[in-house]
Amino acid sequence: MAGFFECIGRTPFASLLAALMVIIGTSVFCGTSFKALQIMLIGVFQNLFGFSINWLEILQVMFVVIGVVMGIFAIILLIFGFLATGATRSNIYSGAKCIMGGRIAGGFFMIISYILTLGWLAVLSVGMVTLVVYAAMNSICNREIYSKTADELTQSKYCFNLTRFGVYREEKNTDHICEHANLRALCNKVEEAGPLFCVAFGAIVLVVVGMIHFLITLAANYTRIKISKELTEYRDAVEMEELELHSTDKKTPPFRDGTDI
């Protein structure tokens, strides 16, 4: 039972919770974003509009790289949390050099975590844009396409044009679609990819919260390691003082009175 409580005392629950949020959020974000972009690239831009966007294909590969990097970084921060928690901190960061190394590592991890948090906040803003576009597309599909039959669409000569969203193409007939079947296919793809973008946005929020948790735990661990340095210096000073007292006692001759003469 004592070993169980000792193990609990060495577990950095804050870092563990932050690592779970970052790993789960990054995995969900990369998976859903990769699938949603694949639907839009192949199902919409290539099959319906007849052109491809190269930088979106590169972005798909970047999602995989981001997932691997964030997973490794979260594990490293979790290991640092274990090293700086409870009795483990006293065993690892006991000497002056070890304490200095721990402080440098903690400061370095805080800087990297801060930069990554700013990066994920930027990704959060991009995710908000995708939600706005999805809401606009969903409204267009419900009002202009799903609510009308094929004959009504043909009579109204309705066409969906990418220029509504600020996308302009130099090639002819690559910025709009007018056939009823293509319009239905477009809306079906939007309905398929839209929820994935929503889940990805929620995953981004989870990652941002996890990174903020990491910043808090890193700041706390940095302070604990700094206090360990002060406690070590105080303990060394006390030990030196005790040694000096013992050496002084040994050098002092015993007191004698005149009765022995």
Jot down its keywords.
single chain; 261 residues; mainly alpha; two-stranded antiparallel ribbon; 7 helices; 2 strands; 81% helix
Short description:
The protein is an all-alpha fold and 261 residues long. The chain is built from 7 helices and 2 strands; from the N terminus they run ααααααββα.
Taken in chain order, the helices and strands follow as HHHHHHEEH
Number of strands: 2
Q: How much β-strand is present in the residues?
A: under 5%
How does the helix and strand content classify structurally? mainly alpha
Largest sheet: 2 strands, antiparallel
Oligomer: single chain
Lateral strand order in the biggest sheet = 1-2
Computed Rg: 32 Å
Termini separation (Å)?
66 Å
Total helix count? 7
Poorly predicted ranges (pLDDT <50, ≥5 residues)?
none
What is the percent of helical residues? Answer: over 70%
Shape: rod-shaped
Mean pLDDT, all residues:
78
Describe this protein's structure.
It contains 7 helices and 2 strands, in the order H-H-H-H-H-H-E-E-H. It is 81% helix and 2% strand. The chain is rod-shaped and about 110 Å long. By secondary structure, it is an all-alpha fold. Helix 2 (13-49) packs antiparallel against helix 3, helix 2 packs antiparallel against helix 7 (180-251) and helix 5 packs antiparallel against helix 7. A two-stranded antiparallel ribbon has the order 1-2. It has helices at residues 2-9, 13-49, 54-83, 86-92, 96-145, 150-156, 180-251, and strands at residues 160-161, 176-177.
